[in-house]
């Protein structure tokens, strides 16, 4: 718990330090203001540091750290050099050459499969694990359209998973603690975590689900995530949330107007 509290404080104070560095990578937010993106580094770097320092006492920490850092680097490339107009699978691949989003999808899929096979006893289970990690990463990225939405969802789900399986999911707790420290800035609409933050959060949740669920539970989650990811190509999650009073209430919690 001491490490978690330290991560909350550290990530909170890292945001104003990193924001000027990333000010050249600004994107228009939901209110039409340009704010720096890629600030997911403020919680990714402290969390990965703690994961690596504890990897000898928690063997899963190393795999969480590698997965999170790899997705963060791919996301940072997309935040810095990608085009905000290219969204979804078709936007990333239906271009002349491979976009930075396409590179992120290919690289993220590769590392997801690699780590997924490490936790598998057969080829089909490795593929299932890899799909779960990759689809989770993309799903959280799809939620990152309004201040705090992706962060709040990942923290709540992450805490629920941790309460169910605290021992193997200790690295997830550190990541969620760092995210909590970052969230006040995001909720104010002053910064964006970008793909640098949203994709690693989703990938970590995917790995946590791999560790927490039996194979049939993972299969059900993969089917649900597949439907959600494909559905996002045709409909807007924001529109669905805004049309539902309860979902809209949850989405507004903590947000500054």
Question: How much strand content do the residues show?
Answer: under 5%
As laid out across the biggest beta sheet, the strand order is 1-2
How do the SSEs run, as a string of H and E?
A: HEEHHHHHHHHHHH
- Number of domains in the coordinates? 1
Total helices: the number is 12
Query: What form results from the Cα inertia axes?
Result: globular
* Strand element count: 2
Question: How would you classify the helix and strand content by structural class?
Answer: mainly alpha
Helicity level = over 70%
* Mean pLDDT figure: 87
- Cα end-to-end separation: 32 Å
Low-confidence stretches: none
Radius of gyration: 17 Å
- Main beta sheet: 2 strands, antiparallel
């Amino acid at each position: 718990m001491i490490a978690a509290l330290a991560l909350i404080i550290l990530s909170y104070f890292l945001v104003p330090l990193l924001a000027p560095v990333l000010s050249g990578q600004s994107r228009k937010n939901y209110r039409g203001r340009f704010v720096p993106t890629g600030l997911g580094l403020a919680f990714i770097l402290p969390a990965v540091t703690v994961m690596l320092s504890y990897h000898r006492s928690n063997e899963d920490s190393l795999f969480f750290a590698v997965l999170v850092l790899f997705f963060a680097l791919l996301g940072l490339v997309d935040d810095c050099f990608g085009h905000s107009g290219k969204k979804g699978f078709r936007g990333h691949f239906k271009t002349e050459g491979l976009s930075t989003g396409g590179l992120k999808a290919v690289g993220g899929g590769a590392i997801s499969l690699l780590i997924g096979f490490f936790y598998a006893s057969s080829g089909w289970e490795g593929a299932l694990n890899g799909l779960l990690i990759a689809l989770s990463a993309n799903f959280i990225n799809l939620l990152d359209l309004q201040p705090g939405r992706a962060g709040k969802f990942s923290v709540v789900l992450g805490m629920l998973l941790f309460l169910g399986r605290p021992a193997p999911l200790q690295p997830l707790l550190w990541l969620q603690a760092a995210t909590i420290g970052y969230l006040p800035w995001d909720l104010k609409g002053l910064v964006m975590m970008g793909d640098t933050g949203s994709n690693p959060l989703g990938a970590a949740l995917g790995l946590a689900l791999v560790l927490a669920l039996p194979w049939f539970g993972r299969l059900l989650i993969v089917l649900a995530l597949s439907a959600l990811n494909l559905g996002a190509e045709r409909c807007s999650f924001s529109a669905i949330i805004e049309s539902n009073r309860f979902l809209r209430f949850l989405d507004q919690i903590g947000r500054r107007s």
